[in-house]
Amino acid sequence: MTKTDVSAAADGGRSWPDRMTAWQIDTYAPFGDSAKLNDKAESPASLGPKDVLVRVKASSVNPIDVLMAEGYGQVLLSRVRQAKKKSFFRPVEFPLILGRDFAGEVVAKGAEVGSEHLDIGDAILGVVAPYQTGCHAEFVTVPVTQVAKKPDHMSFEEAASLLYTGLTSWCALTSAGGLNASNAADKNVLVIGGSGGVGNSAIQILKSWNAKVTTTCSTNAINLVKGLGPDNIIDYTTEDVQKQLEQYGKYDLILDAAGIPYEDIGSAYTPLLKPWSWAKFITLRSPVLHNTDAYGMVFGMLKNMYDLMAPNVCSGAVFKGSTIRWGFFMPAERGVEELARLAVEKKITVPVDSVYGFVDMKEAFNKVKGGHLRGKVVVTFKEK
To answer: Of 91, 94, 15, 8, whose CA–CA distance to 47 is shortest?
Structure first.
């Protein structure tokens, strides 16, 4: 990708060009079939008073990007975009730019973003909510609450991998799980799927809070997971997995970062929760977006209510003083701040599975779609 001369393109106080290079989709289909590299895409038109404009140096590809390319979440996300614009009409969805987390340099900032927050030229890491225009592009605009300064020891590729999975873990643990740095020290937590992006972030966050952490992973991921510092590692390919899970339980909280089928939660995992202690099983396989896609807003939300209540009752969790809950990503300012601080203190690292060039975005999507990753898949925006 060639460098755009930002200063030369300034127009009437605007300090960035009106065109940029970006990957865009014009229809919902597998990314490899629908995505196009457009070197004349419209760049962000304006900045809000609390926004920053960033020249992207690297971004990661997340499973949510693969799903969104095929239409996942389009009904609810479209309604959120409409509400954000305060419009009676649903906004035009295409062309759509995907991409959730990134790292780069600040090019411009809104009037209310003071130098105590950021200066032009600062290296930052950031995250984009699913309803916002994505970061698989030369430039991206986000609220200042969704960025933080990049730690000096982190590469742009590592920094671009931190916030989406990190915030997914942080929000699940705090908002759904009720844990934080002040109350987690005595908690016994099981993280199912410790080798994935969400799982390894959760382990490191929990250990920074001094929680006791048991996690599961496959044989070939044990060395990777061991470096994250959990107290116990269980190889889920062994025959006595259930016995080992019981050995380290009962648990105050179980975070499912592997996508356990709902029918297995009640039989295998809710019995591992501490009874009558408001223990929680948190799954990230929320059906909210799927249900609104399939049934529309009204009936989809009614289906969501049923889908949340039924497992709690059928598993018997509520009759033992525990609950099954859904965890969600949210662009939480406090989460961004805490993750950035942990990164500065070198208490959280981001394993990178593979790195692709900007023109190889389709290959990066295929890699993520194939699964079985040992870290994040990153795309670099090298200037030539």
So the answer is: 15
